Amino acid sequence: MSKGQQTRERIIQLAAPIFNKHGYEGTALSDLMEATGLEKGGLYRHFASKQELAAEAFDFAWATAVRVRADGMDGSGNAVDRLKRMIQNFVEIRTGLVPGGCPLLNTAIDADDGNAVLRERVQKALDSWLERLAAIVKQGMKRGEIQKNADASEIAALIVSNLEGALMVSRVSRNRQAMEWAKLHLYGYLEQSVRAR
Amino acid sequence: MSKGQQTRERIIQLAAPIFNKHGYEGTALSDLMEATGLEKGGLYRHFASKQELAAEAFDFAWATAVRVRADGMDGSGNAVDRLKRMIQNFVEIRTGLVPGGCPLLNTAIDADDGNAVLRERVQKALDSWLERLAAIVKQGMKRGEIQKNADASEIAALIVSNLEGALMVSRVSRNRQAMEWAKLHLYGYLEQSVRAR
Q1: What is d(CA B14, CA B35) in angstroms, rounded to the nearest whole number?
Q2: What number is the ipTM of this complex?
Q3: Domain residue spans in chain A?
Q4: Where are the beta strands (DSSP E) in chain A?
Q5: A110/B112 CB distance under 8 A
Q6: A50-194 maps to which CATH number?
Q7: Which of B22, B26, B161 sits opposite A162 (nearest CB)?
Q8: Most B CBs within 10 Å: which of A104, A123, A158, as the mutation test of the B interface?
């Protein structure tokens, strides 16, 4: 990696928690300069715009979250158990993430209007999460671990909706109870309506 | 209502869609001046700060959403059916709201750090929504319409988490399917695990 690339990576890592905590609009150039110790010119030598830096920072924060949530999900385990493991990771693991909470939740609404670059990254992140979960369901159906008439896209969307919504409720109420309820609810749903009998 | 109060109300109504679409940080004073036709001095004659105007605008947008979502829920209907009606209203009614989508979802993350006035309003709005739903569940338990061992707070949190999370997924993917799935999932949950048998 060239020195320029190293600096670029370092800026992204330092900018990621700022954007994740304060949002795109809430992040001032001065915040980025303070976090990185660089002047405006130094920052813009590596990024064409604030939008580009925000998009790279989002990708970095999201990749970190994906890695944490996938912990223990590899391998050839039962599909339902792997879905439950991801849910457990989402609810219970709070270390190793970029500070500020789930990048998807933080950025989804922020990027909703007028920020095309960031919006595209957020949409791609959500799509790939949904596809990963749907792929596990489809594999489970092939292996006879999941009910034959299951809808992989629907199951994936229900899991993500439940978790992200519960995270929002938990953040607003400053109480993790909604996350625990979502976890237990999804476990029950997967056991009763998804797992093959 | 005095002329001053009328002007104040009009400013709140005109500011509400701006804040709801662009967020607190994304709303510039110039946007508010353009929407209301007032100069800075005119705006600050009625509100002590941008925070105060944003908080009033949120309350206005939220009150509108509450009214729309409560449509047809009054009266002495069966508790499970009233919960289903609220879910249906949330998913299906898209008119009569302040433009920009659900004020709670829009404002929850935005107000997360550093904006104490707005954060308090958002928390109050969420709490009152959860309490309204929990009260319906408790009434249903008393009347024998809902299972005796139900947890009213848990059921309320699951409904809100599902709906708000599905709304986020729908907004990011620009596809309403996740909302429809959440509705059907919650109907199934209420019929199978909540309604008294």
Answers
A1: 6
A2: 0.94
A3: 50-194
A4: none
A5: no
A6: 1.10.357.10
A7: B161
A8: A158
CA B55, CA B47: separation in Å to the nearest integer? 10
Overall average pLDDT of the A133-159 stretch? 97
**Cβ-contact A137, A118 below 8 angstroms:** no
CA distance B141 to B153: 13
Q: Do B104 and A158 touch (CB under 8 A)?
A: no
pLDDT in tens, A98-128: 998 899 998 988 777 668 889 999 999 999 9
Q: What percent of chain A has pLDDT over 70?
A: 98
Residue whose C-alpha is closest to residue A90's, from A178, A163, A181:
A163
Domain B3-194, CATH homologous superfamily name and number: Tetracycline Repressor, domain 2 (1.10.357.10)
Contacts with B126 from chain A: Cβ below 8 Å: 169, 172-173
Of B101, B126, B166, nearest to A161 by CB-CB distance is B166
Q: Nearest Cβ partner of A25 from B26, B127, B162?
A: B26
- Summarised one tens digit per residue, pLDDT across range B114-125 is 688 899 999 999
Q: CB B160 to CB A172 under 8 A? A: no
